[in-house]
Amino acid sequence: GTPLSKLSTKPPNNRPITVGEMVNEKVATKTETASSKHREIAEKIISNQIGAASPAVSPDGTQVAYVVTRVDYKANKYRSQIWLASTDAKQPPRPLTAGEKRDGNPSWSPDGTWLAFTSGRSEKKGETTLHVMPIGSSGEIRTIATMPDGVGSVRWSPNGKLIAFTSRTQDERYTKDDEASMSPRKIETFFTRLNGEDFVFDRPQHIYIVPSDGTAAPCNITPGTHEHSGPSWLADSSGVVTSGALHETWDEDLANDLHLVKLDGEITTLTDQRGVYYAPSVSPDGARVAFIGSDDPLTSPQNDHVGVLEIKTKKREWVSRALDRTFSPTSGAIAPIWQDDKTLIAYAEDRGTAHVVQVDATGKSAPKWLTSGRKIVKAFNAVAGGAGATIAYVASEVNQLTELFVLTKSGERRLSDLSASLVAASTPQTWEHFTVPCGSTYTGGPNEIDVWMMKPRDFDSAKKYPMLL
Fold it and tell me: Checking phi first, is residue 314 left (phi over 0); if not, alpha (psi -120 to 50) or beta?
């Protein structure tokens, strides 16, 4: 060990130093050295993290707006910006925003001349701003809303005059600057908090509507104590379909319903408080709603499927059950997109992967995988257009960060190369896939599970290595 003579003998507060303090200083020195090495490794790995997210295809299918997020290690922050890529890849992708803050949620106007997006560029902590920027013409970015507690699920109305979005509506207690001066919370439900969100029961998520030209303040069309999510516009722009649990026993039975909400706030519940139904998507003709969910609230999202509901009769049916996979992947469920009146685009998990799937909206034929390979699709978007539909998605692999891809009738094309420098510098290891026999706990269940093993660099089969499971 280090001789005591090498340790500090300068007493704190001019008193004699103790042996315990000498030992503590020695331990602290060792810890700091080890910590420094860990910080070096962390900085090398984390500071190179970058990835694509939130693809949004332009109405004519020629461009994709998407988010590029990178780690600013020294500032201990994520920074993200909106990028634009041509689907034919004839022009390199280019940034649309500076990305000094958190820019995200790109959404195209129906005519493709404006792009809405969110940002954290407000000077006030916690505020999120909603903007629209012109695409293909000159003009300035407009700020059309500033919300105190986040903005998400940005959706243009079909007539282009309005934008719907979600935001949390804070209780009066949040107006206090000092948390110690806030009034006590009165908790009367089981469901009170969310990972990454903290308390939510006193700041429920609501649906807001704002004119796309910013001429009026946002209007909350679902006020109250209950949460709403995933707005999808009716074809005539007269309202939205949302998901939410509005019944009294919502936090006991875990059921979640679909609701038709008119712009004046009138709510019509479309389902029967028996299952979990969410991520609505109104059909082009406005007569039906596609959604994700399950009739069993206690097992969702274990094996959630795509359903279709007739708005007039409230009759619903599951249309994806011929494919025994969950349509609510780990990355998060995304509302199905109508390719035409008879076809839906969704995505599902499959044995360690996640892929884009084409679903027959009538349920008469089995779903078809549109992408393949050992990759995980994390988000997708598409424009209606029958056989000529353009589908953009972001996906990662074990040796590749999340990149942007496009799928058209001419085939699949990769549009981004964000991980090129990291891959070149680190040469990521790949994996070996194999299966292990197992007994199933229910009839018809799987008889094997998938396993992946990543071996150390310069692996020697004659040597033994520690294994991390």
Answer: left
Residue pointed to by tokens 């078809």: 368
Alpha helices in 231-340 (DSSP H): 250-253
* % of the chain at pLDDT higher than 90: 64
Strand partners, 93: none
- Structural domains present in the chain: 48-169+204-426 (2.120.10.30)
CA dist 198 and 403 (Å) reads 31
> How far lies 60's CA from each of 110, 300, 388, 412, in Å?
10, 36, 10, 18
Beta bridge partners of 67: 53, 82
Q: Say what the pTM is.
A: 0.87
Q: From CA 103, how far away is CA 124, in angstroms rounded?
A: 16
- Which positions ≥6 away from 115 have C-beta within 8 Å? 56, 65, 82, 96, 106, 107, 108, 109, 132, 133, 135
* Backbone phi and psi for residue 265, each to the nearest 5 degrees, phi listed first: 95, -5
Average pLDDT over residues 326-354: 94
Residues 205, 229 contacting (CB under 8 angstroms): yes
Name every residue whose Cβ is closer than 8 Å to that of residue 311 and which is 6 or more positions away in sequence: 241, 260, 270, 286, 287, 288, 289
pLDDT the model gives residue 127: 92
**What is the three-class DSSP state of 217?**
coil
Chain mean position to CA 389: 23
Contacts of 301 (CB under 8 A, 6+ apart): 276, 294, 326, 328, 333
User: In this structure, which amino acid lies at residue 426?
Assistant: S
CA distance linking residue 41 with residue 30, whole number of Å: 17
pLDDT in tens, 180-220: 778 888 898 898 898 888 888 889 999 999 999 999 999 99
Which of 309, 295, 306 is closest to 241 using CA atoms?
309
What's the burial of 211, exposed, middle or buried (CB within 10 Å: 0-12/13-18/19+)? Answer: middle
What 3-state class would DSSP assign to 94? strand
Measured CA to CA, the distance from residue 291 to residue 240 in angstroms comes to 14
136: left (phi over 0), alpha (psi -120 to 50) or beta: left
Stronger pLDDT, 137 or 97, i.e. the higher one:
97
**187: its two tokens:** 């908790």
